[in-house]
């Protein structure tokens, strides 16, 4: 498809970005879009209204190769960063909560095992997680340590051939439905072996005595997903439950960057969906004898939304090309997450105004997207944290403390 053809068939593609994709990339996008249209869009408003996480969707996503999509081997699809990003944009165009599941499973839990686990751990967990047979969660955030993971209080103490973990986690996606939790805990100085205290990751089957996950309810956002409080009360795991590689906060941060990369794409997808919904509504809704789309103020809103969507898509695609080339830096991921989520929220809110009173119902997606994006704005680093990351990059001064 040429750029002119793309523009004619999709007026929201202002910059003919479709022409910048390879045939394989377009095929991946179209395949995931078809899956979402068939299995997610018809049901997602009801899932959101009833606060239901659709467990039946998990094997569908696994069979489509979306779980751990960017990972190599162990039954994972091994697709490019751009293909993974395009897939996340399509999933989040339907709902942020469903993309959150894919992200927690693949970019957090599976990435932690793939990046930092032993060969035995990878062989045991990754193939089953890739199909959706096993679900994972990533237990880092705590009630008193959200934006400051170095302040975590969860501890792991070596006791003979076992580790004993005590502590609490909060806002842990999938914890109540997960089979395994990647739990991050501080290891005491003696157990670190070199007189230092550091953060280590542990693979904890959620059936382990002392592990308790309680869904956080009621929520006004991500209602088609599940987030939990987790209590760890004398949780005892074998010595080989520890993730052996990359000790310290570099471990979870490397996984968070994978998730943040997907968020930059996902937010662009949510924004695109809001624009498309608002444009279609404005074309068919008549007031004062003509469509809303014929009014100057409505056109101004649509143009501003289209520009924001185009900028978000360009940024996401640029980050994807950098990632595929092995040149993506953490501060660039922060720029993508901060900018695209902020833009998506603006687009969602503006789209709702075009829908008028009808926009507050679940018949239309923008207000649901806006509610979900408030969570996306907060998790994997708040606006403030990513602003400070970029400030440190610009000035050389860390202003976190």
TrEMBL record:
Pathway: Amino-acid metabolism; tryptophan metabolism; Amino-acid metabolism; lysine degradation. One of its GO terms (biological process) is fatty-acyl-CoA biosynthetic process. Its EC number is 1.3.8.6. It catalyses: glutaryl-CoA + oxidized [electron-transfer flavoprotein] + 2 H(+) = (2E)-butenoyl-CoA + reduced [electron-transfer flavoprotein] + CO2. PROSITE patterns: ACYL_COA_DH_1. Residues 137-235 form the Acyl-CoA oxidase/dehydrogenase middle domain. It comes from the Bacteria. Residues 253-394 form the Acyl-CoA dehydrogenase/oxidase C-terminal domain. Its cofactor is FAD. InterPro entries: Acyl-CoA_DH_CS, Acyl-CoA_Oxase/DH_mid-dom, Acyl-CoA_Oxase/DH_mid-dom_sf, AcylCo_DH-like_C, AcylCo_DH/oxidase_C, AcylCoA_DH/ox_N, AcylCoA_DH/ox_N_sf, AcylCoA_DH/oxidase_NM_dom_sf. GO terms for molecular function: fatty-acyl-CoA binding; flavin adenine dinucleotide binding; glutaryl-CoA dehydrogenase activity. Keywords: FAD, Flavoprotein, Oxidoreductase, Transit peptide. Residues 22-133 form the Acyl-CoA dehydrogenase/oxidase N-terminal domain. The keyword Flavoprotein applies. Belongs to the acyl-CoA dehydrogenase family. This is glutaryl-CoA dehydrogenase (ETF). It comes from Isoptericola variabilis (strain 225).
């Amino acid at each position: 498809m040429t750029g002119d053809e793309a523009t004619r068939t999709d007026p929201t593609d202002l910059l003919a970005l479709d022409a910048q994709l390879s045939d394989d990339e377009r095929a991946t996008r179209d395949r995931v879009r078809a899956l979402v249209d068939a299995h997610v869009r018809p049901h997602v408003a009801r899932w959101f209204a009833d606060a239901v996480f659709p467990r039946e969707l998990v094997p569908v996503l696994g069979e489509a190769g979306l779980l751990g999509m960017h990972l190599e081997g162990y039954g994972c699809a091994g697709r490019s960063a751009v293909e993974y990003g395009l897939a996340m944009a399509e999933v989040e165009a339907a709902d942020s909560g469903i993309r959150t599941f894919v992200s927690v499973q693949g970019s957090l839990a599976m990435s932690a095992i793939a990046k930092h686990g032993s060969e035995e751990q990878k062989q045991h967990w990754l193939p089953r997680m890739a199909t959706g047979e096993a679900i994972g969660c990533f237990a880092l955030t705590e009630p008193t340590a959200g934006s400051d993971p170095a302040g975590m209080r969860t501890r792991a103490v070596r006791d003979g051939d076992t580790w004993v973990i005590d502590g609490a986690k909060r806002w842990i996606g999938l914890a109540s439905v997960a089979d395994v939790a990647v739990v991050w805990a501080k290891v005491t100085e003696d157990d670190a072996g070199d007189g230092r205290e550091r953060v280590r990751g542990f693979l904890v089957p959620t059936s382990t005595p002392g592990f308790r996950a309680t869904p956080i309810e009621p929520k006004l956002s991500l209602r088609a997903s599940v987030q939990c409080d987790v209590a760890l009360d004398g949780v005892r795991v074998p010595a080989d439950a520890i993730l052996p590689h990359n000790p310290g906060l570099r471990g979870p941060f490397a996984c968070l960057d994978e998730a943040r990369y997907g968020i930059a794409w996902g937010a662009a997808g949510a924004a695109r969906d809001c624009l498309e919904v608002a444009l279609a509504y404005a074309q068919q809704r008549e007031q004062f004898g003509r469509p809303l789309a014929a009014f100057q103020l409505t056109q101004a809103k649509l143009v501003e939304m289209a520009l924001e969507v185009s900028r978000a898509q360009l940024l996401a695609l640029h980050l994807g090309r950098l990632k595929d080339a092995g040149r993506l830096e953490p501060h660039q991921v922060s720029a993508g997450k901060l900018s695209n989520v902020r833009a998506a929220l603006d687009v969602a809110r503006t789209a709702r105004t075009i829908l008028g009173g009808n926009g507050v119902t679940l018949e239309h997606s923008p207000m649901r997207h806006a509610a979900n994006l408030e969570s996306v704005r907060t998790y994997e680093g708040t606006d403030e944290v990513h602003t400070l990351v970029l400030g440190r990059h610009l000035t050389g001064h860390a202003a976190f403390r």
